[in-house]
């Protein structure tokens, strides 16, 4: 749902556990942001990179333990080659620039997607950052890179077969342990910017019971105030997971 009422998230949150343990974001609208200003798309991506930095810091400050950013989908390979090349150069610069802060704040970096298919220099920068932040305990930052939800599901199925798991032994837990997000909670809240109302092949298995927040703001314009609105909206919802509202209301 879209929420227009501007309420401080702190006025809504009475307990730390109301903050989503896992927030996932579809960062959409960089190109449109640039077009509206008569700028090349690359300037929109640069602005979006700065927004990602600010939102990462804001989520860390708010105690969100898992943050997943939809950074580059498998479908994005179809974009113009110069744009794809620029995106990976921008990602490398972002990782190199922010690595020290990630280590300082004890943020662990992970990649959701097929790392081996990325450009060599990008792989090297990511591997270095993953190794240096491996011990991070305060937050896990997932970058969905070269990612496809359908492909992730297919790969998990193949891993089950390779591991010799019989049909009778296949459970949700066994399947989940073969996803990129193994060992992490499913996203509690998924935010999508730019006014689009779709998942775009993002965390398809994991999003079964996720709450959604859609905003018309383009990603470079998404700020802490809008994040707080999304968090306040999430905090006001009753998550039933198949139960009735009365059942949920009586649970302690």
TrEMBL record:
It is an enzyme of class 2 (transferase). The active site is at residues 28, 76. SUPFAM superfamilies: Undecaprenyl diphosphate synthase (SSF64005). Keywords: Magnesium, Metal-binding, Transferase. Substrate binds at residues 29-33, 41, 45, 73-75, 77, 79, 192, 198-200. GO terms for molecular function: ditrans,polycis-polyprenyl diphosphate synthase [(2E,6E)-farnesyl diphosphate specific] activity; magnesium ion binding. Binds 2 magnesium ions per subunit. Homodimer. Belongs to the UPP synthase family. This is Isoprenyl transferase. It comes from Oceanidesulfovibrio marinus.
